[in-house]
Structure formats: structure tokens, C-alpha cells
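Could you help me review a protein record that somebody else here produced? What it holds is a sequence and that sequence's fold in C-alpha cell form. I need someone to confirm that the C-alpha cell line plausibly describes how this chain folds. Take the sequence as given and treat only the C-alpha cells as open to question. This is what I was given:
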Amino acid sequence: MTKLTDTQITILEAASKRSDNNIEPLPSNINAGIKPRVIQGLLKRELITKFENGYIINAKGFDAIGRPAPTKTEPSQPVTLREGTKQARMIALMQRPEGASIEEICTETSWQKHTVRGVFSNTLKKRLGLIVTSYKDDDQQRRYRIQGDTL
């Protein structure tokens, strides 16, 4: 493995202490001029991973600074949903054996399609830890289901 610079070590150590493992905010001594080069160096060495909101330290980055990579733990409290909310109605549709299409969810919740997709990604998968699967039969709309009895 290549030797890391002091700046790279500082960034990785700071990210390893954050709950979201995000590398930002970068230390104050890194100005805007060198920020792209530092990030590219970390990406090239595969120590960070790009995601929708920026960059996070990955397992190889944790290893590079001699820290164990965190393991995903179960939430300390089970998540409870309020009855009758749009989110609860959406989950109920997706728990049916046939699942639900985005159009059905839009009709039920009066949300737009991009909002439904955002709820899939952020709320259902990340926050609630649900497994969302999709399938498409010939000449049919794509349907989405929640796997298992998680709620």
C-alpha cells in the first residue's frame, strides 16, 4: 500500500469518527484549490467511496488508518410507524403479495413519482432498513415489494 500524506490521514481519521463516515467538512487547512486533488488521491487509492451526497470513508480507508470498519448494527429501538400516514399506506401496498407499482403508490399518496422513488431509497432502505425488491412481468408495469415481515 502506498504511503498516505498527513492531510489524507487527517481526513480519513476525521471521517472515521463521524456517524455517517462522510469526509466533509474537510479540515480548515485544506483550501479550495487543493481539495479536488486530495479527493482524487483518496479515490485513486480506493480509500473513499462516492455516494449521492459526497464521499465516505470505506473499509479500505479504515484499514489504511488502522481502525476497524464499523459493522451495521440494529437500531437501538424498533421503528414504529404512525397509522394512517402516507408512508404507512405506501408500506401496506408494498407488503401485499403482488406488491405495488409506482403509479398505484402515487394514486394512494398523491405524491409525484420522484418523491416515491426518494422514499424507497432514503426512508425505506436507509432509515427503516427494509429490503425493497422489484420485478417486471412481460408487458406489465414494474412492481415493488417489501421483503419479509420487518414491520
Helices lie at 6-17, 35-44, 59-64, 86-94, 102-109, 113-127. The longest strand covers residues 48-51. The longest helix spans residues 113-127. The CA atoms of residues 2 and 106 lie 50 Å apart.
